């Protein structure tokens, strides 16, 4: 078996050996054991499910909440000649139906599913007929209400065991407290506890948390002093552009990145940064997932993250090459106050949650008793403006509605247009003869795409407009025409989150909301906020504060963080003052005034502090108003 997994690693990924823990996790999975892999960012989690899936016959089902990351992994697998597909919000019933059939009857090796899609009876039923060899659950901390990014849609995943009771589950996450580690295994119905955990320590990282009034200028000094490539994290899209412009104006090659960009823009900006054409990328937390750039020398946070878990993951994108790197968090008292207010706003009243549901149903004109399984594009900004709501409480209300099974909400991601012919080749030829105006477009589609009679293929309307020398609007009209005449199915692109109503509409006054759960969740979130405050306020060691939070105790100071470096500096001054006092007093006894004036290092307070310490230690004595060095 060992030879097999090593040959697969070499054949498909080009590596001669596994990283620490990878082989142990893979062997555990191949032995049929439920396994929890706790590996910090950059530890190589995907290899842990992709290699064993390639060893065994059958399909690996991967649950991931990050559609953009799913797409990246699928493209990566396909580039290696491995068949992989995804099912996520925004795909219609027919698309999902075809994709699932290919998993049962085709050569698909990896099926990626967004967790909210698991609510679908179609998906659950078809999984029963697949020859599954492994269930891999990425970002597994999302299943725990104690986790920092709890997602209600994950709670359904324990039902995977019902479909294939003997197939192992591999849960993967980059960060989890001991309580979350226990909860993940319990909620996923692990047959036995089985955890592989890598230390959260990153010895090459010098964590810094600086209370700074002028954050922009401090950021600029850090970027110029450290050099190399880096990421600056900010809270919103507007800030990404403002901070990137500030850096550009000061001679630092920079760009901005956020979820509102088109897929092409994101890829272009990301590639420029990974190839070091852009030195600094200023981004929201939408940036970084799945990006393995080893030479990141700094990660700067201009705002305080919501939790220590989130900070650890984002900061951990620095120094993956093992060389020294610096995660720096810049903050002010105002940021701390804002974080607390955001926390308070994140737990709306039951009445507000019910009211939000009522507005949603009205917004999409859903009748009472109707609406089950309807999926719509959801524009949060438009919705809150229309009903005069606040953004944070509304988003939180949606999450609690999701948790109680009323709706599901996917992340915002660009989904390209898709097309599929719904008639066979012979009938299509007849249609081309009868409707000549469609002939050039049909020929262009057939020349460009294979499998368009069997699958939905992603299409680019602009490319067809260019090829055929007609306006973009004409191509869209023609595609719409093919759908109206039932020749093909045309699904237009979207870059908005997808909202699905999971139940028929009810009167909002009768809407059940679990108030007890909301109170419990608020307590969890308060603990997380206090943990990030503790990280900011500690006087000991930043790294140790993180390690203690994740359950690693009795660790030595890192020697690299701002607090350790400050302590080293202070200790260095103390040692120099002590050495000077020793030399001066061995030459002759001196009065306090003479001794303080003669010392060349430190201020008066520091000199007196060291002198008191030497007296307490018995190295210096005071006799008739003069200080003496006591020889051993």
UniProtKB/TrEMBL annotation:
UniProt-recorded Gene Ontology molecular function terms = helicase activity
Q: What is its EC number?
A: 5.6.2.4
The record's listing under Pfam families reads: DEAD, Helicase_C, RecQ_Zn_bind
The protein's matches in CDD domains, at most eight in alphabetical order, are given as:
DEXHc_RecQ (cd17920)
Q: Write down what this protein is called.
A: ATP-dependent DNA helicase RecQ
Q: What class of enzyme is it?
A: isomerase
Q: What Gene3D superfamilies does this protein's entry cite?
A: P-loop containing nucleotide triphosphate hydrolases (3.40.50.300), Winged helix-like DNA-binding domain superfamily/Winged helix DNA-binding domain (1.10.10.10)
Organism of origin is Sphingobacterium litopenaei
Give the Helicase C-terminal domain ranges.
218-364
Q: Where are the transmembrane segments?
A: none
């Amino acid at each position: 078996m060992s030879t097999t997994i090593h040959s697969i690693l070499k054949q498909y990924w080009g590596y001669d050996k596994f990283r620490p823990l990878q082989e142990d996790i893979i062997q555990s999975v191949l032995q049929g054991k439920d396994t929890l892999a706790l590996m910090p960012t950059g530890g190589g989690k995907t290899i842990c499910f992709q290699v064993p899936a390639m060893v065994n016959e059958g399909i690996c089902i991967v649950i991931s909440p990050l559609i953009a990351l799913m797409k990246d992994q699928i493209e990566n697998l396909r580039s290696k000649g491995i068949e992989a597909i995804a099912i996520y919000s925004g795909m219609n019933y027919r698309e999902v139906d075809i994709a699932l059939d290919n998993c049962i009857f085709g050569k698909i090796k990896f099926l990626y599913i967004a967790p909210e899609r698991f609510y679908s009876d179609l998906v659950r039923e078809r999984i029963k007929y697949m020859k599954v060899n492994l269930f891999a659950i990425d970002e597994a901390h999302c299943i725990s209400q104690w986790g920092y990014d709890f997602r209600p849609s994950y709670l359904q995943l324990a039902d995977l065991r019902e479909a294939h009771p003997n197939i192992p589950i591999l849960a993967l996450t980059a960060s989890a407290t001991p309580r979350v580690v226990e909860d993940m295994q319990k909620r996923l119905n692990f047959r036995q506890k089985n955890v592989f955990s890598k230390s959260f320590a990153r010895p090459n990282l010098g964590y810094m948390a600086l209370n700074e009034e002028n954050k922009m200028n401090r950021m600029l000094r850090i970027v110029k002093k450290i050099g190399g490539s880096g990421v600056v994290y900010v809270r919103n899209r507007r800030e990404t552009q403002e901070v990137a412009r500030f850096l550009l104006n000061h001679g630092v090659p920079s760009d901005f990145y956020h979820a509102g960009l088109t897929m092409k823009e994101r890829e272009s900006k990301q590639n420029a940064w990974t190839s070091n054409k852009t030195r600094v990328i200023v981004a929201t937390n939408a940036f970084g997932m799945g990006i393995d750039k080893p030479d990141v020398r700094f990660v700067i946070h201009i705002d305080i993250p919501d939790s220590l878990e989130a900070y650890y993951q984002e900061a951990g994108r620095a120094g993956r090459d093992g060389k020294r790197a610096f995660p720096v968090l810049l903050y002010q008292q105002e940021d701390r106050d804002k974080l607390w207010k955001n926390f308070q706003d994140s737990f709306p009243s039951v009445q507000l949650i019910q009211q939000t549901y009522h507005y949603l149903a009205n917004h999409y004109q859903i009748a009472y008793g109707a609406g089950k399984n309807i999926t719509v594009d959801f524009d949060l900004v438009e919705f809150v403006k229309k009903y005069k709501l606040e953004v944070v409480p509304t988003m939180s209300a949606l999450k609690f509605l999701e948790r109680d099974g009323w709706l599901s909400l996917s992340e915002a991601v660009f989904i390209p247009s898709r097309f599929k012919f719904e008639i066979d080749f012979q009938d299509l030829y007849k249609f081309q003869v009868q409707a000549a105006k469609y002939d050039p477009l049909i020929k262009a589609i057939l020349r460009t795409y294979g499998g368009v009679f069997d699958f939905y293929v992603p299409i680019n309307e602009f490319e067809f407009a260019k090829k055929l020398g007609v306006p973009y609007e004409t191509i869209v009209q023609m595609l719409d025409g093919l759908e109206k005449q039932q020749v093909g199915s045309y699904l237009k692109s979207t870059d908005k989150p997808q909202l699905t109503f999971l139940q028929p509409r009810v009167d909002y006054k009768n809407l059940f909301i679990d108030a007890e759960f909301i109170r419990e969740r608020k307590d969890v979130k308060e603990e997380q906020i206090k943990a990030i405050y503790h990280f900011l306020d500690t006087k000991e060691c930043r790294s140790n504060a993180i390690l203690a939070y994740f359950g690693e105790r009795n660790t030595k100071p890192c020697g690299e963080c701002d607090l350790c470096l400050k302590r080293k500096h202070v200790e260095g001054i103390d040692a120099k003052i002590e050495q000077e006092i020793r030399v001066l007093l061995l030459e002759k006894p001196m009065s306090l005034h003479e001794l303080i004036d003669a010392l060349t290092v430190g201020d008066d307070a520091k000199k007196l502090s060291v002198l008191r310490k030497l007296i307490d230690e018995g190295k210096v004595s005071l006799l008739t108003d003069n200080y003496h060095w006591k020889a051993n």
